[in-house]
From TrEMBL:
Biological function: Catalyzes the conversion of L-aspartate-beta-semialdehyde (L-Asa) to L-homoserine (L-Hse), the third step in the biosynthesis of threonine and methionine from aspartate.
Protein name listed in UniProt: Homoserine dehydrogenase
Catalyzed reactions per annotation: L-homoserine + NAD(+) = L-aspartate 4-semialdehyde + NADH + H(+); L-homoserine + NADP(+) = L-aspartate 4-semialdehyde + NADPH + H(+)
Enzyme class: oxidoreductase
Cofactor(s), by name: a metal cation
InterPro entries given in the database record: ACT-like_dom_sf, ACT_dom, Asp/hSer_DH_NAD-bd, HDH, HDH_cat, HDH_CS, NAD(P)-bd_dom_sf
Keyword Amino-acid biosynthesis: yes
SUPFAM superfamilies cross-referenced by the UniProt entry: ACT-like (SSF55021), Glyceraldehyde-3-phosphate dehydrogenase-like, C-terminal domain (SSF55347), NAD(P)-binding Rossmann-fold domains (SSF51735)
PROSITE patterns: ACT, HOMOSER_DHGENASE
Pathway assigned to this chain's UniProt record: Amino-acid biosynthesis; L-threonine biosynthesis; L-threonine from L-aspartate: step 3/5; Amino-acid biosynthesis; L-methionine biosynthesis via de novo pathway; L-homoserine from L-aspartate: step 3/3
Enzyme Commission number(s): 1.1.1.3
Record keywords, A-Z: Amino-acid biosynthesis, Methionine biosynthesis, NADP, Oxidoreductase, Sodium, Threonine biosynthesis
Length: 429
């Protein structure tokens, strides 16, 4: 074993960073045995040095992150700060100084992954980011390495624990969205400002990363169609139950049938109770990968939290340190296909449409004719009426988003349709 230690700079000491520091300091002998050399935490960059951080060596704290990454003796920089800046600047500075980087920054990788990968390749160093998607679940490395000889056609999964917790509570307890969010916040599953989670931004960034790796192309967060869960109602949950389904926020990345394009989207969807994703409860994550030779693979586990995310960070750290010892780097960014991303208007899926209509003869025929006029065939219809009011639930066969949008616009113009109460996609069949 080499006696000179590999030195690590840690950027950020919040929930994840403090766990990384704790594990590194308490399991240093094991890490050294696994890497083949001692791994030393050389410094921890924080915004405010005076805050109490139990278990974190105080003498390692510094507020000068730039000076820390510029040190000549730093071999690896671990970035768990999040956000775009100053994280991007610090990572690029680390590359310039010959340090490899382990990051958990999904937003930065989804926006500027191309620039970061190019900078790492120029510098001859590693950029690893297993912790950026699905917490402790090994997913990035299996896609990038284990399935490198296969052709991945689809990635479908639950990649945000906060929204899964909220939707699960709405389904199991009958709570409304606001009540379920309040419980998630009280338990620490939701941030004080939950926008990134509940509006789908977090899941969209992860979808961009997954699509890029799975399909060997470049996909940014801006190219991912995004809907959050804030408009999901108790009535939507009840309708799903009536169909033998449950509502989940899904990230879906697909290669087109002709292989010439890809789509990446995040939105709530009804999935059958028979689908394995339907049983993913609480704040857990699960991802299906569909490959031509391997078939369907499912990855399941805790998708967030300090310890689970730190586990993924440490796994990358061990891999990067081994590469440093061997004078090598891991797999480079693979974007040889350069497939364009299609818009949501071109995506074909099924839909659940709930309408408030007049309870009188001929309304169903009117509605059915509008669907037929736009080439959207109907699978099932359920109608309930009382005292002049009625609800009409239509489930379609597969249609494009553009065709469904045109259908809904025409439905809203009918005198017999009082409101289009909700529209939700149906997946997982």
């Amino acid at each position: 074993m080499r006696t000179r230690p590999l030195k690590v700079a840690l950027l950020g000491c919040g929930v994840v960073g403090s766990e990384v520091a704790r594990i590194m300091t308490t399991t240093s002998d094991d890490l050294a045995a696994r890497v083949g050399a001692p791994v030393e935490l050389a410094g921890i960059a924080v915004r405010r040095a005076g805050r109490p951080r139990p278990g974190v060596p105080e003498h390692l704290l510094t507020t000068d992150a730039e000076a820390l990454v510029a040190r000549d003796d730093i071999d690896v920089v671990v970035e768990v700060v999040g956000g775009i800046e100053p994280s991007k600047h610090l990572i690029l500075k680390a590359f310039e100084n010959g340090a490899s980087v382990v990051s958990a920054n999904k937003a930065l990788l989804a926006q500027d992954g191309a620039e970061l990968h190019a900078a790492a390749e120029r510098a001859g160093v590693d950029l690893y980011y297993e912790a950026a998607v699905a917490g402790a679940i090994p997913l990035i490395r299996p896609l990038r390495e284990s399935l490198a000889g296969d052709k991945v056609n689809r990635v479908l999964g639950i990649v945000n624990g906060t929204t899964n917790f909220i939707l699960d509570k709405m389904d199991t307890s009958g709570a409304g969205y606001s009540e379920a969010l309040e419980e998630a916040t009280a338990l620490g599953y939701a941030e004080a400002d939950p926008t990134a989670d509940v509006e789908g931004f977090d899941a969209a960034a992860k979808a961009a990363i997954l699509a890029g790796i799975a399909f060997h192309t470049r996909v940014t967060a801006a190219e991912v169609y995004r809907e959050g869960i804030t408009e999901v109602t108790a009535a939507d949950i009840a309708s799903a139950k009536a169909m033998g389904c449950v509502v989940k926020l899904l990230a879906i990345c697909e290669r087109s049938a002709d292989g010439e394009s890809v789509t990446a989207r995040v939105h709530p969807a009804m999935i059958p109770l028979s689908h394995p994703l339907a049983s993913v409860r609480e704040a857990y994550n699960a991802v299906f990968v569909e490959a031509e030779a391997a078939g369907r693979l499912m990855f399941y586990g805790p998708g967030a939290g300090g310890s689970p995310t730190a586990s993924a960070v440490l796994g990358d750290l061990v891999a990067v340190c081994r590469n440093k010892l061997n004078g090598a780097t891991g797999p480079a960014d693979s974007v040889y296909t350069q497939l364009p991303a299609r818009t949501m208007d071109e995506v074909v899926t099924r839909y659940h449409v709930s309408l408030d209509v007049d309870d009188r003869a001929g309304v169903l025929a009117q509605v059915a004719s509008v669907f037929a006029e736009h080439g959207v065939s109907i699978d099932t219809v359920r109608q309930q009426g009382r005292d002049g009011d009625a609800s009409l639930v239509v489930v379609t066969h597969r249609a494009t988003d553009a065709a469904l949008s045109a259908t809904v616009d025409k439905l809203r113009a009918l005198d017999s349709v009082r409101d289009v109460a909700s529209i939700m996609r149906v997946e997982g069949e």
